[in-house]
Amino acid sequence: MAVEKDDFCIGKIYFRYGNFTTFIRWSGVERKKNVIFCVRDKKKKRGMHMRSKSFSIVGSNKARSITERTAGCIFMICGVFAILAVAVITLYMILKGAPALGKVGIAEILLGTVWAPTAAEPSFGILYIILTSIVGTMLAVLIGVPVGVLTAVFLAEAAPPRLAKAVRPAVELLAGIPSVVYGLVGILILNPLMYKLEMFVFKGSTTHQWTGGSNLLCAVLVLAVMILPTVINISESALRAVPKDYKMTSLALGATRIQTIFHVLLPSAKSGIATAVVLGVGRAIGEAMAICLVAGNSVNIPLPFNSVRFLTTAMVSEMSYSSGLHREVLFTIGLVLFVFIMIINLILSRVMKKGAEHGDK
Amino acid sequence: METNNNSLFVKRKRPTDMVLKVLIYFCAILSISLVIGIGGYVFVRGIKAINWQFLTTVPSSRKGTFGIAGNLVNTLYIIVITLLIATPLGIGAAIYLNEYAKPGKLVRAIEFTTETLSGIPSIIFGLFGMVFFGTTLGLSYSILTGALTLTLLILPLITRNTQEALRTVPDSYRSGALGIGATKWYMIRTILLPSAMPGILTGVILAIGRIVGESAALIFTAGSGYLLPKTVGGAFHKVLESGGTLTIEMYLRMSNAEYDYAFGIALVLLVIVMGINALTKVLTKRFDVTRMDERKKKKTGGNYAGK
């Protein structure tokens, strides 16, 4: 009996399989009927070994019925749906956002500083809006990440287990609170505080535009709170994933707990924390409803006490009454945001890949 | 060297350690007090607005009532329709990725796009939903448009959770079922899905949480209707009418500076979120495979070696 392509070997014996009924039969009574045993051919040794690796019980079902095939097909369609969705979204964002770039001019839109879409001579410069989103996100990350990472350190290392157990649901609650609720609390608590601060800082200033507390700083604080749960959760699991030996070794060498945390644990959890930062950036730059009412919503240079407008809030606040070219430019803003998010996604997958490689080593 | 450092048992105090330790505790306390502060504030302000009428009536100047019943029903509509579409799709995708697909370009593409979908902010989904479902497919502002938009939003959540759940099912279950002659689809239907059910359910519940809290994706797709359907036919037709969820209503009230009303809704939302969190906790605790092993270990005094 010659060895064929699909046969597999265990030790010195080759098996040939048909379908699952045969598979069972050879382990039962009629084992010799459908399965061929033969002694290994020395010449073909190497090739056969490679084939034996690809043997899989799951893959060997050849006599699939129609149901089987349909099931497989349907699952594949479900899988491909995600690709389809992203493709259609990308296509639509470009189709809707790009024409205005051509009509108004790329430089005028992206580098223009005057936003007056409904004026007699409309002007569609969104540079300040883009800058606001970037600056706002960066500030929010600068505040949110240290607080989040240190809270994660507290939960993973410093806190007694019981306290950590009580705090974790609280963090989950923070993650689950709808963004509008953050906005509401921001309006009623942060805005008055900011107004007082504004009065204090700009006392007697005649050039300052009073915002009544709705300013960039306020939005940044709301965003910082909103990215906290993401940062805490991911950094905490990254810290917990650091092998225990590292900590033990460091402590045994005489390092204090704090030294261990900052010189051993945090550096080893670096890629996880990087993931947390990137996700935090993604969440902050895409947030709309929470900051819509606290940021003041007029287009200005992103300075802490200026009333500002983000990419997201520009869309939310004007989409309902816009029309014509104005609306197209709003879609261009959407496209700009989309491009930012895509870049962040690429960075994220890069960071995660690096983290996985690091973990393998 | 100072003399007091000669002993092994005397710790050298490092000032930087103290500073950092204080910093860690400060940050932790800050985070915790944020949660308690926000929760407490919403509770105190919201409890005043909530009464039976608030929960069971719709705003009407003729009857002089104002309440959120219509928005509650809209939220339910959107949850049900979204889950009806997204759950099979998400589970199917996860099954394909975990059970059928061989590693290669397609799988990588699906995983990358799922990752991308979960990273796209909801406002972009809102824009896309408005243009694609609303204008191109002609559904305009309706609950269906909103639900279809949210389907895209929660798809990655369900896919990922189902994948995680399928991964925890031991391979021996699969080979066992196939070994005794089950076909693959039969094996998936009768062995895999039931064993992975808690994980899948967790995903679905998290998705409900996401839907309840979503606002930016809905404001341009589902609109802001707040009336209750009056007839049976109306209940079906409502799917094609505009309907604002709790969050949308809250946002609109907020922009009108009706803060008490908004806090009432906020409290309802918080209670829902807390309920959802508690439910997921119960589910994961109850069905976690690794924990079950631990429990067995405890019972047999640590001698349990099987795995």
List the helices and strands and how they pair.
The complex is a heterodimer of chains A (361) and B (307).
Chain A: E1 8-10, E2 13-15, H1 20-27, H2 31-34, H3 45-53, H4 66-104, H5 106-111, E3 115-116, E4 123-124, H6 127-158, H7 161-176, H8 179-201, H9 216-240, H10 244-252, H11 257-268, H12 270-286, H13 289-292, H14 311-318, H15 324-360
Antiparallel strand pairs in A: 1-2, 3-4
Chain B: H1 15-47, H2 52-56, H3 69-100, H4 105-119, H5 122-136, H6 143-168, H7 171-179, H8 184-213, H9 216-219, H10 232-237, H11 246-255, H12 259-287, H13 289-299
Helix pairs in contact in B: 1-12, 3-6, 3-8, 4-6, 5-6, 6-8, 7-8, 8-12, 11-12
Biggest interface pair, residues each? A-B, 94 and 94 residues
Q: Give the count of helical stretches of chain B.
A: 13
Helix content of chain A: 55-70%
Shape category of chain A: globular
Poorly predicted regions of chain A are 19-55
Low-confidence stretches of chain B: 301-307
Task: Describe this protein with a few key phrases.
heterodimer; A: 361 residues; mainly alpha; MetI-like fold; 2 domains; two-stranded antiparallel sheet; globular; B: 307 residues; 0% strand; disordered C terminus; phosphate transmembrane transporter activity (chain B); transmembrane helix (chain B)
Polypeptide structure, described:
- The complex is a heterodimer of chains A (361) and B (307).
- Chain A contains 15 helices and 4 strands.
- Chain A has 361 residues and is an all-alpha fold.
- Chain A has 2 domains: 8-60, no CATH class; 106-360, MetI-like (MetI-like fold).
- In chain A, the strands form 2 sheets. Chain A has a two-stranded antiparallel ribbon with strand order 1-2. In chain A, strands 3-4 form a two-stranded antiparallel ribbon.
- In chain A, α6 (127-158) packs parallel to α9, α6 (127-158) crosses α12 and α9 packs antiparallel against α12.
- The longest helix of chain A is centred in the first third of the chain and has 39 residues, at 66-104.
- The radius of gyration of chain B is 25 Å and the shape is globular.
- Chain B has a domain at 74-287: MetI-like (MetI-like fold, Orthogonal Bundle).
- Mean pLDDT of chain B is 84; it is low at 301-307.
- Chain B has 13 helices and no strands.
